[in-house]
């Protein structure tokens, strides 16, 4: 019963992720904080702007550009408002 490497592997760089530097990313996997950046613009991501598509991380802006705003309430434009 020997288990090697208790630390999970970062899907992006394939190196071990230790507790101090890990961040839950797309697919419920552990990523390095430094690795978890937007696939398109390389902006660093945190829980407030992290989006995912096919297990790849994107920021909200790029996600909206690439995949459309489905699932997100874009309140800023106000076009969804129909007050009567
Ligand atoms: Zn990594
Ligand atoms: Zn981005």
Automatic annotation (TrEMBL):
<dbReference type="GO" id="GO:0046872">
    <property type="term" value="F:metal ion binding"/>
</dbReference>
<protein>
    <recommendedName>
        <fullName>LIM zinc-binding domain-containing protein</fullName>
    </recommendedName>
</protein>
<keyword id="KW-0539">Nucleus</keyword>
<dbReference type="InterPro" id="IPR001781">
    <property type="entry name" value="Znf_LIM"/>
</dbReference>
<dbReference type="GO" id="GO:0005737">
    <property type="term" value="C:cytoplasm"/>
</dbReference>
<keyword id="KW-0479">Metal-binding</keyword>
<dbReference type="GO" id="GO:0030036">
    <property type="term" value="P:actin cytoskeleton organization"/>
</dbReference>
<keyword id="KW-0677">Repeat</keyword>
<dbReference type="Pfam" id="PF00412">
    <property type="entry name" value="LIM"/>
</dbReference>
<feature type="domain" description="LIM zinc-binding">
    <location>
        <begin position="8"/>
        <end position="69"/>
    </location>
</feature>
<dbReference type="GO" id="GO:0005634">
    <property type="term" value="C:nucleus"/>
</dbReference>
<keyword id="KW-0440">LIM domain</keyword>
<keyword id="KW-0862">Zinc</keyword>
């Amino acid at each position: 019963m020997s288990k090697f490497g208790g630390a999970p592997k970062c899907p992006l760089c394939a190196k071990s992720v230790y507790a101090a530097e890990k961040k839950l990313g797309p697919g419920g996997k552990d990523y390095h904080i430094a690795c978890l950046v937007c696939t398109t613009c390389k902006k660093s991501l945190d829980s407030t702007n992290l989006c995912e598509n096919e297990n790849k991380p994107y920021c909200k802006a790029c996600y909206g550009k690439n995949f459309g705003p489905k699932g997100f309430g874009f309140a800023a434009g106000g076009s969804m408002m129909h007050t009567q």
